[in-house]
Amino acid sequence: MRPVRVMKVFVTRRIPPEGSAALSRAADCEVEQWDSDEPIPREDLEQGVAGAHGLLCLLSDRIDKKLLDAAGANLKVISTMSVGVDHLALDEIKKRGIRVGYTPGVLTDATAELAVSLLLTTCRRLPEAIEEVKNGGWTSWKPLWMCGHGLSQSTVGIVGLGRIGQAIARRLKPFGVQRFLYTGRQPRPQEAAEFQAEFVSAPELAAASDFVVVACSLTLATRGLCNKHFFQCMKKTAVFINISRGEVVDQDDLYQALASGQIAAAGLDVTTPEPLPTNHPLLTLKNCVILPHIGSATYRTRNIMSVLAADNLLAGLRGEPMPSELKL
């Protein structure tokens, strides 16, 4: 009987228990893990990945040429526990013939739920209202006190009508949204039909929407898409929500738009950088709600993501089809 070839796997963080269990059951792998919930220091990452056949990483790990050089020629598979891949140097990875696994689909529902939660929290001014209860600002019922903006009869514009964008629209529709708009690389008539959504340019979407929800991937075309010009197109009563990637938004321009009353409010689950420094100007604004990138943060979703990331890694190492492989 031929001995089992043992391959080195490096995991850059503690991952949820179901994914960790899937890796520990693999007799053909020797798993090393950065045993912390905090990010691995760069020097330790470079040492840990040296000689590894497989790497399981998170979206906060920058996998660039220097790290790939540190890994060496053994590295055959990178599995990221994320749907986004903007932290991976894909051109360099492709050049080296390394396979990439990722976790699309499984976090769609959780992220869409968070987007709707953030939208409602922002447009109905819930953090402000909670603070008023705590600080004694709640004195009596007043006709216009703590008024916000409602979804009924509104127009919602979605930047990126992919899986998550569609899931957001599906959840918003029962609130009585009157009209859906969307923008992206190209029209998606089949996907848009469910919501009778109209394909428009980004400036048109900004100008016509009461709520703008950004759910696109970070690409060269979308980096900095939501800038001064975009916000100038928006209504003064409009609410801006971003659950995609921080770099899609020019945060200085967003601050000016919020501080000057150019738009009504913003809710962000993603920022640049992450974490956002506690002295950042956006954190001084009452009309800006910022969350710490928790779109997929349900126990069930994170466990499923970890299992898919582990299964992708193991399948790649064994030369088998991955459940979710990124085609390079």
From TrEMBL:
<dbReference type="InterPro" id="IPR006140">
    <property type="entry name" value="D-isomer_DH_NAD-bd"/>
</dbReference>
<dbReference type="InterPro" id="IPR050223">
    <property type="entry name" value="D-isomer_2-hydroxyacid_DH"/>
</dbReference>
<dbReference type="Pfam" id="PF00389">
    <property type="entry name" value="2-Hacid_dh"/>
</dbReference>
<protein>
    <submittedName>
        <fullName>Glyoxylate reductase/hydroxypyruvate reductase isoform X1</fullName>
    </submittedName>
</protein>
<dbReference type="InterPro" id="IPR029753">
    <property type="entry name" value="D-isomer_DH_CS"/>
</dbReference>
<feature type="domain" description="D-isomer specific 2-hydroxyacid dehydrogenase NAD-binding">
    <location>
        <begin position="117"/>
        <end position="295"/>
    </location>
</feature>
<dbReference type="InterPro" id="IPR036291">
    <property type="entry name" value="NAD(P)-bd_dom_sf"/>
</dbReference>
<feature type="domain" description="D-isomer specific 2-hydroxyacid dehydrogenase catalytic">
    <location>
        <begin position="9"/>
        <end position="326"/>
    </location>
</feature>
<comment type="similarity">
    <text>Belongs to the D-isomer specific 2-hydroxyacid dehydrogenase family.</text>
</comment>
<dbReference type="Pfam" id="PF02826">
    <property type="entry name" value="2-Hacid_dh_C"/>
</dbReference>
<dbReference type="InterPro" id="IPR006139">
    <property type="entry name" value="D-isomer_2_OHA_DH_cat_dom"/>
</dbReference>
<keyword id="KW-0560">Oxidoreductase</keyword>
